[in-house]
Each structure stands twice: as C-alpha cells, then as structure tokens.
Amino acid sequence: MPKSKRLMELMMTVNRKRRFKVGELADEFNVSTRTILRDLQELSELGVPLYSEVGPHGGYQVLRERVLPPIAFTEGEAVAMFFAVHALRHYSSLPFDAESASALSKFYLHMPGDIRDQIDRMKERVDFVSPTRRGDAPHLSVLLDAAVHQKVLTITYESKSEGTTSRQVQPVSLYAHNGFWYCTAYCFLREGIRVFRCDRIRDASPGSAEPLKLSDIRLSRQEVVLPTDPVRLQAKLTRIGTQRCESELWLSPHLHVREDGTAEIDVEVSRSEIPFYTEFFISLGKEAALIGPRELKAAIRKHLAELLENYQEG
Amino acid sequence: MPKSKRLMELMMTVNRKRRFKVGELADEFNVSTRTILRDLQELSELGVPLYSEVGPHGGYQVLRERVLPPIAFTEGEAVAMFFAVHALRHYSSLPFDAESASALSKFYLHMPGDIRDQIDRMKERVDFVSPTRRGDAPHLSVLLDAAVHQKVLTITYESKSEGTTSRQVQPVSLYAHNGFWYCTAYCFLREGIRVFRCDRIRDASPGSAEPLKLSDIRLSRQEVVLPTDPVRLQAKLTRIGTQRCESELWLSPHLHVREDGTAEIDVEVSRSEIPFYTEFFISLGKEAALIGPRELKAAIRKHLAELLENYQEG
DNA sequence: ATAATAGTGACAATAATTGTCGTGAATATA
DNA sequence: TATATTCACGACAATTATTGTCACTATTAT
After folding, report:
1. Which of A146, A157, A265, B301 shows the smallest number of beta carbons within 10 Å?
2. Is residue B216 a part of any domain in this protein?
3. CB atoms inside a 10 Å sphere around CB B77
4. Tens digits of per-residue pLDDT, B51-95?
C-alpha cells in the first residue's frame, strides 16, 4: 500500500478506535512498528490531536476534536456549503457558529479566486428573510449536546408565572420558531415533558439525575402547547391582514379564510401571552379588527396611548 | 518540494489558470515537463477534469466542475455543515440541493461511526420551523446564476393583473420571504427594477439583451429608485429595536450600531414612502425613538390616533 | 515544411521510505 | 526491587518511489 493511502486509512482507524497501541496498528497494516511510529508523528504534524503514555496499560489516544482525513470537494459542493451557512445568518447564537465559520474559511482558502468572487456576489444577492430573532439563547450548544447524548442538566429558568426556578431537565429536542428557540425536555421537577423558551434559560450545567430513555419522544411538539389560563382570541382580518397572518406558523392553523380572501382568527391562547399579541395586533394596524378578549383590547389601547405620547412633538 | 505538496499546489494552480501549457507549469514549479505530465495524469486520476489539445495554441484546460485540493476538516466542522444543511430542509427545490447532498455524503463517508450516530440523532432532535413553502420555484438555480453572473434572461411571467407575459430581465437578487421566493430584477419591458414572485415564473432561458451594470443595486430595495424629493430619516433604536432592524435588508446598511447594541438610523428616503415608514415605526413600538422628519411623526400620530379610535370599546 | 504542443518508453540518478537493531526511559505490577 | 510493557529515537542498509534526460511519435495551426 502506498504511504499516502496508508496515512489516510490510519487516520480513519485511529479516529474509530480512539485508543490503541503501536503494535496493534503495525499488525493491522502489515508494516513495522517503527513505520507506524513515524506515521503517527506525521499525523500529529497534520493536526490530529494524539497523546501517548508509556508503560503497561499505556498507549495512544486521540483527544477532543478529531480531524477527518482530507476530502476533495468539487467547487459546486463548496459553494453549496457557503449557501447553506449563509442562509442561516439571521439566526444568531447558533450551535456550531465557530465551527461553520472555520469550515468555510478552509474552503475559501483552497478556492480559486473566481469562485471566491462568485461566493461574495452570491452573499450579496441571496437572502432568507426569517422571523426576527427575539432574545438571545446562549446555552443552545449545551442543550443540543444534552439532547443528542441524553444527558441531564440543571437549569435556572425564568418563567413569567413562577419567577426564577432551578430544576433538572433532560432535553429531548430543540426547535426554532418565530424567532425564539424552544427546548422540549423531561422536567424532573414536574415529572413530565415541558417546553422551555431557551432565551429564558439563565444557566445550564450538568445535572446529577439518572438519564431516562427518551428516544421515543423526539420532535413531536404539537401536543405540548396546551394554553394555561386560556382566553378566547377573536379577530377579523382584511385580505392583506390575512396574507400576513398566513405566514405566521403559529397562527395559520387557526385562520378561517373566506372566499373573498378575508379571514377570521378564533383561537384559545394563554392569558400570559397578551403582551405578545398586543404588539402583534398593533403591527397589523388597520388590517385587523379585534373582537376580543377585552383585556387585549385594553392592553392595545394602553400601548397605543403610550406610543402616541412618545410621538408628541418635542 | 515534496511531491504531495507539489500536487496540491498544482491543483490550485490549474484551478486558478483554467488554461495552461505543460512548459509553463514546469517553469513555475522548477521540475521537468516530464514530471508535470506525470503529475497531471495523477490529478486526472484524482478526479480533476482535465482536457488537452496538441498543436500550436493547444494546451491543457480544466473543464466544468473543478475539484478543490483535499481539505482536512475537524469533526466539529463536519457536524456544523450537517447542521446547516439540515436547517434548510423545509425549503425544497433550493439551489445546490444536489451539491449539498453529495458534499454531506463525502463527509459522512469519512467519519467514524460515533459521529455518524451523533449526526443521525441530531437530525431527529433539531428543527427549524419556517414559513410553509407556498408555490414551487423550479427556476431558482437559473435565476441565482443570472444574478451572480449578471446575465439577462427571457422569462414567462404570470402576474395577477396582466396575465402571462414574456419579457427580458436581469436578475439582481433573490430572497425568501414568508414561504415565497422573490427575485428583484431589472425589467427590460418596464425599463426599471421590478420584483417577481419566483413561483410565477413559468420559464427562464438565456436572453439576448446586453447586460447592464447593476452591481450597485444588490440587496437594497431602497436604492433601486434614488429618493426623489428626499427627506432625512433619523431615529434611535434600543437594543431590541436594533436586532429587529438588522434583519431588514433595506435598512441594515444605514444602521450605525454602537458598542452597547443600540443604534441610530440616518438615511435619505423619498417623501412618497412616508406611509410605509409610518407602519414600520409603529410596528417597532417603543424600541424606536424617531427624531425626524416632522411629516413622519405627524403621520404616525395620525395613524396611532386612528388605531386608537378603532380599538375603543364598542 | 515548420514550429508548437502533448504524449510515451527506457533507464540511470537521486530521493524517500522502510525495516532492523540497539538503546533508553517511564511506569504498572508482582 | 526486578520485570514486563510500552513509547521513543537514532543509525544504517535495503528497498522503493520519484525525477530528469533523451529519443521518439503524433497532431495541428500557420
């Protein structure tokens, strides 16, 4: 086997094994231990994080961030990766932010100039308008890691109704919706699946509880959103108002659209979400006519009056 | 220079030059032409699409889809690429669909099994809820290519008001908004910038008109028409207001963001757009403090008063 | 016809890789 | 403390890979 090929296979082998002895590899590859030693030194120079200990029970280990063997991509594949990462740029505090940036810079570095230009132009000419991000979610990476590896976390959560609480949870899934990140998790405090708004998680650290096997739950989030302390939200929408609301995912299932393009909203919502709906209806302006609830009308009036105050000639 | 390194550099060089002669490269790399010939044969075997012609004015060419030199990514970078592509899966018929799939499969192939499992679990546990896609846009790739390379297209467009028309356009930018894809383009029929809904483009083929230099237009809808009868728009934004405005493409170039996350808007706009800004600033609520112009303030006050009227208890 | 260009085969010169052996050093275990 | 295990390194010869040179062929534009 030519040396270069052996090095690549060695790279994959050590990545797979994580721990190994020099003699082992020498047998597998049918070369002398001296050669394996030299090879390992080369891998080390190529960036593979190898660590070794002498003595019985010693041996080699691959540490933390492993390095994949070099892969040759086509220009189209490289551009596709830029496209995908670019599409997500309106999401901030994403997991793997740093990693995507460093991956793209590796691609960029190996590209001929004309593709670089093409990518730069593409960035200026393509956009994914996504819901305005509302609230930072600094612990997303930790939550994702816990969801993927079935770990238990201790989180400090700031809920509107209960104030700040500390509890152990085992994350199940994460989803971005309307500019917020949500985390469904088994809550050891409430002994059931709950949904948490990630921007309200103030702190997340490893927990002590024994992880449950939650593999069957996954992404099913439909049934979890039962409103607590519900109020009935009703409104009429003009055609334009209907179009705007149709694109709001949380609302569209509750839209009753008529032949002429106008629609009605009729949905049970949590009383605690009135502040959100206040802003939402104000932004709809004259395209919506709210029927109820009264509390919401009052809140909107109050908000409008305050705004009007702000806009007095000063 | 060791052979492996020379091969990688050769790969980058031929990608950059696209056309070259063997003697040229031999000079650049200080090796004999015989060696370059052998090297080129190896590159060819590695997948670089080389083509050669003999005779004067002959030489080598790199065809269509070039191949980048092999790049070693870390496991984290690879996972980040999966994450990004996964995040876009609710968009169908995206440009670079096939390319991202083949890139990911290359990554997948070179990964140790435990990262594969990790990725498979992540796919089940992370979701990006985005606006329901409405309408297919089969010509996106063609439009993107035209926007990036400043090409003119002949499109068949089905508009509600005018029925089906054929016209030449030069695409400027593409954006996804609320489940639709839009294309801003210079329309040779209307002699101005227009926005087209991509799902209403029935056909797109190369056009005959001479491309214009539209490089200055890019993503900003604002500058498409230089403000006629301009007024100076100035406002201060809170941190949250800044975040919201940053995702507005037409606005973000005119945002002056401070250290603390707050920002100021300072831009010349057309007087005729005051109705638009009225709604926009109302939707920003208390996150924006408008400084001027007076007309806008007055319009906002009027609008707010009317809204307040609408929301009186009935 | 001539010059420019790619392409091939043979072989010697040169360079890189590998295996062998000797030696050493750290460390767990008996 | 002695011993087995394991990594580590240097020297050198044997082996293998790479390179350059040269001679030659083939194609094509001018």
Report:
1. B301
2. no
3. 25
4. 999 999 999 999 989 999 999 999 999 999 999 999 998 786 789
